[in-house]
Here is the input.
Amino acid sequence: MVATVFIGAAAGFAGDRTDAAGPVADALASCPGPRFLMFETLAERTLALSQLDRQRDPDRGFSPALDRFVGPVLARCLRDKIRIVGNFGAANPAAAAARIQGMAREQGLPEPRIAMVEGDDLTGVLLPDELAARETGGSILRGATKVVAANLYLGAEPIARALDQGADIVVTGRVADSALALGPLIHAFRWKYDDWDRLAAGTLAGHLLECGSQITGGYFADPPFKNVSGMADLGYPIAEIDADGGMVITKPAGTGGRVDRFTVIEQLLYEIHDPSAYLAPDVVLDVTDVMVEQLVPDRVRVTGARGKPAPETLKATVCVDGGVLGEAEISYAGPNAAARARLAAEIIGARMRKRAPGLVFRIDAIGVVSVLGENGGTLSRQWNSDLPDVRLRFAAQSATVADVELLLDEVEALYCAGPAGGSGVRRRVTPRLASASCLIERNFAAPRVTMLGGRP
Amino acid sequence: MTLETVTLHEVANARSGDKGNRLNIALVCRDPAYYPAVAEQITAERVAEAFAARRPSRVVRYDLPKLSAFNFVLDDVLEGGVNSSLGLDGHGKSLSFLLLEIPLRIAKQGGGKS
Here is the structure.
């Protein structure tokens, strides 16, 4: 009978710190019970970008940071029976599994048992117009003839199944982030698929862990109101979950950061809409009565998650081509910088009215009014005339590169044909993906678990 | 009782999250004593007003008294979301601090450091 399961989180997004796993694995190694290390590396767009990678090279299409995330802890995890669960398979779990096998070989380790979870990819299952008919809260897919990526959010069942089959490492593509924790809990505690309160508790554990350090002091500091020490060496979280679904959130000893009521509550509500109905593939989580209680420094007890039956449909994210984003920046500094920047903005406005009257563009004055500005034309707002250093940013989006380059060319031309002292032009064109959410009937979900290699 | 005006930033923590064109901001009181004042003054209507420039189509406030927290959900405020916004912060990550600029009248007392 398992009393407590220990789950550490070593990554909360594709670009997370790749040296975070070490201290978490070290701490898990001495935990008295089943231990798991989860990696969440897939943002909404990441999977579509991976799909494009795979189209270019059939051996790619998984997390480009896979080696850096898993490589440093692979030996330790296999030795200390810390089972790894990660969605770093992205658009190509099979290739990611093969790569981990390769890493094990290169490091002279015994061949691990690696499970691949597939079945999230809908591109061969539903046609673009069938996806469009299932779009919710928008009409991005209307009339689309080609999708870049369409992926269901699978639940915890295939992960639990893979662990039941003895996987040392479970590689998934798109699954609900929280399933990376719920799967191991269902496996270890034999929770039933209609035990809604426990499934809710496991989903809550996953939700609290899925952003890595966002619960241990990351994305929190606001000195002197909210102080976090040791942010250069933040400890990533470990959840200790008991069979009834109560849990303690903590972090490895000797690491930076903090775990207290405030860091936990901010993450608890992160990306939640209705707190009584957080939809996951396996359960609807209600956090309304969750209690968050500090036990000792860096140990917080979380209890009271409630569950309701799983939603009838599954969410899918569908990405289509979104044209290109063009951005160009130029600086004005020193005496009267603001007046010269304002003149530059006026010049661009006049030039664009003449050359590309249909192209919507935005102007920001970085450091003055940019991230909190509502839209183009904000330069009239909060414009302080004695600023010594103003960086203007211009941005436009279009289906074609040529359209946005009209704007970027005009900004670059300010070098000679603009106000005095314009400097440091940088320009960039970035391909964009437009993403839509769809609700998909469950009969289209047939998750497959395939085992690769390993000891008999 | 003497009242003073502070900003939410002085008494509460906030974190933004996005899903498509929808933004949520969790607002967490640093001391449960502030909860009633926030509940009374920082209504969905007040938040809609603070975000008027982004033209929210709907603002809902969910109350979490056991956590001394609120969750605000604002629809259609992210210029279409991270994949279509022309702005630098397509996720709306910085917008928690726009919420924290809102003034709050509270009973006069000491600071709210955590």
